[in-house]
Amino acid sequence: MNAIANDAQALLDSVAPAAIEPAHLIARVSAIAVKLVYPFIARNDVRHYLNGINIRPLEDGSTMVVACSGHRYIVVRDPSGFADSEIIVSISKDALKHATSAKHTLDVMSNGSAMFSDQVAQPLFIQPGNSLIVAEFPRIERVATLAGYKEGIVGAINPKFLYDALEIGKTFGDSIRFFTRDAESPLTFVLGGLGDLECFGGIMKLRDSMATLPDWLPLPGEVNSLADL
After folding, report:
1. Taking the domains of the chain in order of start, what are their residue ranges?
2. Is there a contact between 162 and 45 (Cβ–Cβ < 8 Å)?
3. CB atoms within 10 A of CB 24
4. How far apart are CA 157 and CA 2, in angstroms?
5. Helix (H) or strand (E) holding 15
6. pTM of this prediction?
């Protein structure tokens, strides 16, 4: 019996333990970029990939941060960002409380750990568990265009979605511009005054509704302006 045990131990000793690769940084983007896109993330969608943000490296070495709910999208280009490959990351509301400075970053590790860090890369908040979502994110470039668009708003828009775009512009930028092609195509907005960040987004139109005033309104008399009322 001892001989069998000794042989088994010898076999175990001869097998080298598997090398465990230490976790390494796979993405780092501006915390403000994450805070910009967060309102546009889907909530509890069965398309689980829409419940996170997409971080994607661009050919010029910068990084694109995207959120899409299926009804609206937002894209932020972070020229100082880094990503060694495209990933999708879930972000908790508690974590977002630490995205308070342009010097803070979201750091994502190869083991799925995600944290907000300060300017010297010290963690401010580490999300529990694995934050990586394994899936393919929609190609926003298929719907993002200004071809044939003119400045202005045309068509029926969800007022909450419009409010969120205006709120982002008020909080982070110094201007916002809207562009429309027709009553069906997405309403596109572009934000200005974001420092090094560049930001644009789109809101899908609603199928609707009142294109004219209701027929119950009495016929007007002749007036040229509100001052004549």
Report:
1. 25-203
2. no
3. 9
4. 79
5. none
6. 0.82
Coil, strand or helix at 31: helix
Length of the chain: 229
Tokens of 36: 């910009």
What fold characterizes domain 25-203?
A: DNA Polymerase III; Chain A, domain 2 (3.10.150)
Is residue 118 within 8 Å of residue 124, measured between CB atoms? Answer: yes
Per-residue pLDDT of the chain (229 residues; tens, 9 = 90+): 565 556 555 555 555 555 567 889 999 999 999 999 999 999 989 999 999 999 999 999 999 999 999 999 999 999 999 999 999 999 998 888 888 888 999 999 999 999 999 998 898 999 999 999 999 999 999 889 899 999 999 989 999 999 999 999 888 888 999 999 998 899 999 999 888 999 999 999 988 666 677 788 787 776 677 776 6
